[in-house]
Amino acid sequence: MMATDTGTDTGKLLSILVNAYTGALISVSRTVGIDAEFVKAEISHGINAPGSRVAALIGIVGGTVHSTASLMADLPAFEAYVAAFTGGMVKADIDDPMSMSVIGELTNMISGQALIKADVPNLDITPPQMLSGENLKAIPPKKAGVKSFTLPFSVGGGKLFLILSVHG
Amino acid sequence: MMATDTGTDTGKLLSILVNAYTGALISVSRTVGIDAEFVKAEISHGINAPGSRVAALIGIVGGTVHSTASLMADLPAFEAYVAAFTGGMVKADIDDPMSMSVIGELTNMISGQALIKADVPNLDITPPQMLSGENLKAIPPKKAGVKSFTLPFSVGGGKLFLILSVHG
Hints:
homodimer, 168 residues, Chemotaxis protein chec, 3 helices, 33% helix
């Protein structure tokens, strides 16, 4: 690997990713006709995504970066994106791979746009993994050096959470 | 990046990872005193992990590889690993980061050993992401070129599932 440590520490990288992902989420949502409103007052360190029923996770790796980006949504937000992506042709159903693929594709599109904006060289991502459940919770790693951040968005009467975890 | 396509196709890579991960899961379990029995008859294409309450996901990226490895467990299997890793000092609780970190660390250790065995150059992994929920389900991507495979293991009266997804 030719990657060299450019002195980007965990905190700085997290802040770059937070800004890039926030902009990308709003922008991608707008292109499918959804107004995702960033709820700045509810930003939190760690992971805090109450009411979530679906999640899509993407791994981001390259150079000194070892991160994950996760989207978690409650039912109203999930329904809003499924309706928007399918033109109302697919009914949102957490057991249906077709509607779950919407949340995966959304995570993919946001990550693609965010990582271009972030301009960290040589980043590569995994395909999104989708999970559903009742009382769905993401639990932050208890490891030193792992920092997580939850960005909440108001969507269609529901909540969409973007969770970034960076390993220093 | 210096990585070149060595002609490893998705099916071959998946088979390499399946073998390496199966061996690593059994070996790592044994080192903490757990007899994880591979239930060959229940191997399935796609994702099939009924009864799961906890999940830990790791992204694997490098060269032409874009994969994820997930462990999913029901309560008895989760309890067995928490007891084994903590010497019975921690009661398994899906809402407790301390006991959830066990399933993350297990996924880390298995991935570390599996990727050394698999001997695919330049692979890099993300920190594990842990999720819990009732009726927890992983939904396979509906994308062409993504292949998933579920390997079931019998553990302490419960079930542990190893899910590998490879993007071609």
